[in-house]
Amino acid sequence: MALRVLHTADLHIGDRRFGRFDPALAVNTRLADQRNCLRHLAELAIAEHADAVVIAGDIYHSKSPTPAEEDVFAEFIASLSASDIHIFAIAGNHERPTARGRASPLTHIDTLGLRHFHLMTDPGLKTIELPAGKLCVIGIPWPLRRELAEVGLEGEVSDPATWDEYISRRLDSLVPQIPTNSTAILTSHLWTSEVAGRQPYSVRGEPVARASTLAREPFRYIALGHIHKNTVAWNSPPIIYSGGIDRGDFTEADHKKGVVLVEFDGAATAWRFIETPARQFISIEMDLSGFPQPVESVSERASSYTIAGAVVRIEVTQAKGDPPLEARSLRPKLDNPFFLQVVRKVGSKDGMPFSERVFTPLGALEEFIMRDPELAPFKDKLLELAAKLAEEVG
Ligand SMILES: [Mn+2]
């Protein structure tokens, strides 16, 4: 009988980027995207007869999620446990409190003592009995500086070797506790040097381990979180970042988002990536210098994309004196984008852009208000008051 585990991470429930504040529900519209992806994930786990779901950290986007955000995760836990699917979770950097003993957004769920919910707030190990055999999960949450001393380390956090040694010492004490005849998995939230080396920026003192440090006997699979792009860091045993389940920004426009379904059948480990219904992000760049009808030019180009329901960024370069491309004139010409962002670059005579955006003081205020979901519903009133104020001060 095969044992099946669904690996996910970086859910970032409560990430509000590219959403709008919905005054009726008092939530950001992106929360519905996160709920949608999680519902899809629960349905997938049930349809694929998963025994367990492993969440490798960053369930929430912040350490203090709102009640509506907590409800999205509660619904996920409820639908899995109702289908007898276990959930293993560790905290990522977004939700792990830096002070020992302080409650995380996951603490209260753990306190409920649900039979199917297994939280590892600190490095630890949990074993459950399943019809297909014993499943043992070692969890190492996002490592904190204060934990270095717990394993007798005083190294420099900017030195990757310090973090690698930290992970190694944690595994030295945890691995011998793995029960015999169990299928063992490691889950953690951190960089791996194999992946960090491919990044255009350094890991800046963040926790990092070598894949070879993680790839210990008897681990059959290593479920990682922190990198939002689905990435295979090591082949045997598989060390994989599932990546997030929804897109967060334009750097992920071309990434496939999804989860990893792992199957342990006897001595064999097989896995496959399954896509989630992530929000589409579309970025269109155009040089419209000297074009008399920028709205028409952009809407014509946009017609070759599926704009409906997408987060759309239009980046145009215009010449000084061109009729400025404005989002409010463009929006009605587009097929119902979920979010529209227009970025104008104005070129000088020699064609070199000298300014990213052109703002009047009130225009700048409007931009500021629209970026804040709490302020956005009161935009008109705030702008009216600001205009009065501007008049008064002359
Ligand atoms: Mn993270």
Overall description:
The chain has a six-stranded mixed sheet. Strands 7-8-9-12-14-13 form a six-stranded mixed sheet. A four-stranded mixed sheet has the order 17-18-19-20, with helices on one face. The protein has 394 residues and is of the alpha/beta class. Helix 1 (30-47) packs parallel to helix 2 (67-82) and helix 10 (361-370) packs antiparallel against helix 11. The radius of gyration is 24 Å and the shape is elongated. The protein has helices spanning 30-47, 67-82, 107-111, 145-150, 160-174, 193-196, 211-214, 294-302, 327-330, 361-370, 379-393; strands at 3-8, 21-22, 27-28, 52-55, 86-90, 117-120, 124-130, 133-140, 182-189, 191-192, 208-209, 219-225, 231-234, 239-241, 258-265, 268-275, 281-287, 311-319, 339-347, 353-355. The N and C termini lie far apart (79 Å). 27% of the residues lie in helices and 27% in strands. It has two domains: 3-275, 4-Layer Sandwich (Purple Acid Phosphatase, chain A, domain 2), CATH 3.60.21; 281-393, no CATH class. Helix 6 links the parallel strand 10 and strand 11 (208-209). The site of manganese (II) ion (MN) has 6 residues, from loops. Manganese (II) ion (MN) binds at residues 58, 92-94, 189, 226.
